[in-house]
Amino acid sequence: MSASREKKKRQDLFAGGGVDPKAARAAEQKAAEKKAKILYSTLAIVFVVVAVFLVVYNSGILERSRTALTIDGEKYTVAEVSYYYQDAYQSFLNTYGSYASMFGLDTSKSLKSQNYSDDMTWDEYFKEEAIKNMKYIHAVLAKAEAEGMTLEDEELETFETAVENTKSTASQYGYSYKAYLNVVYGSGMTPDIYESSVKDQLLVSKYAAAYSETLTFTDEEIQAYYDEHKNEYDLVDGEYVSISGSPETKTDDEGNTIEATDEEKEAAMEAAKETADKILAEYEAGGDLEALAEEYGATYTGNEEMTYSSTYVYGDWFFDEARTAGDSAVLEDENYSRYFVAVFHDRKQDTALDYNVRHILITEDNLDLEEGEEATDEMIAAKAQEILDSWDGTEEGFAELAKEYSQDTGSKENGGLYENVAKGDMVAEFQNWCYEEGRKAGDTGIVKSSYGQHIMYFVGYGETPYWYHACDNALFSEAYSAWQTEMTESVTAEVNEGGMASVG
Asked: What pTM was estimated for this model as a whole?
């Protein structure tokens, strides 16, 4: 059959509504094959697109390139902001440690699912902290660079140590350096971004330290500050008795608390007032306040170093500059439904001197434990005693022992020495030992605290009283805070919501 005749035949068949079965099947097969090719080609393209996206997403390219924050026209990526986000988070945990839960923060849960306040999540809080810190760092870096300040050998050594510590930590957990950074700061973090951020922080710290050295205050300025804030730094020798003015708690047959009536509350306060008046009268007649408190079922408190508090009414009464030795009074405290009988003896400056001390911190890390063996307080104490027993009796010898054994990285390389330590700078157990009556240069001892066992060597007292230290520090804090505010008040920050959503 010729081609023209075959063409004519097909035309006739279609015109007549007939279909050549063989030709139809062939046409359908070809059409199906074409559709399949198109479908598979489409799916292949989709799979390639998805695969590329996943590779890009998981690689952190988006985090490294996507803008999350713009400060004074300079763009910062998701990865860069994430560094300061995690820095703020870790700083919070380092500050409050196990007490973080008291602030409502559960480290095992997503920060986005927990509220910092009624209108802010913890995630939002740390983002705000990151932005605030970045504005400050941006401003200080500009100042430092404008003045030609750079990192020198000492700072570069600190930088290298920080990097090596990070690498060491990564290795301990079985990660490569980069992989560890990704775990901590997000997939967009690279060694370059991390190290650049660390260097920026070191330069900012150097500039801030240089500025802080200019913040010095004269004796006259410190005295003037003290005169304006005496209540914050003075101590009072006094005693008081607390008498509850709350009605007795009543419950119904089902154990539910019954709310007291106004009449019952008023009657309870009147009874407390009557008791307070009796105690004061008997005290002024020569009675002992502590004994009277016991007699009348009240609570007695005696304090030779009472600090100011506005919580209860007796705070303002005790620290009234009009107070003289022997003053006594009945004080009503409506806020807490009680009466106080207060007796004033004396008011004085807090003249506790600063001191110099060496110590060797001993922890379970000093013990040679067998596999599976757990350290005990007794074992740590015994180790501390063993080290003290090996001491040659000289301050130099003590310093060498500190360098060898101490777990306190803040003083270890300095022979365990802390100088010009002011009252309140150390944990209570440490401080109390230093201020024990009769303490003198050369004294040694062992003190237990939450950190471990402290082998103590007392170097001696200084000449600066606590109130002077405290006022000097307060002036410094005010001036430094004002400088920080001034540095950032003209800095503008614009958040890219899309990029910021990936921070964390």
From this structure: 0.74
